[in-house]
Amino acid sequence: MRFATLTLLVAVTISGAPTYDGTMAQTAAESRNTGQVSSIVDRPARSRALFSEIAKVLTGPRCMNCHPSGDEPLQGEGRHVHRPVALRGGSNDGVPGLPCASCHSDHNVTLLTAEAGYRSIPGHPRWGLAPIEMAWEGKSVGEICRQLKDPVRNGGRDLALLHQHIARDDLVGWAWHPGAGRQPAPGTQKQLGDLVGAWIESGAECP
Question: Which helix (H) or strand (E) holds 14?
Answer without folding.
Answer: helix 2-15
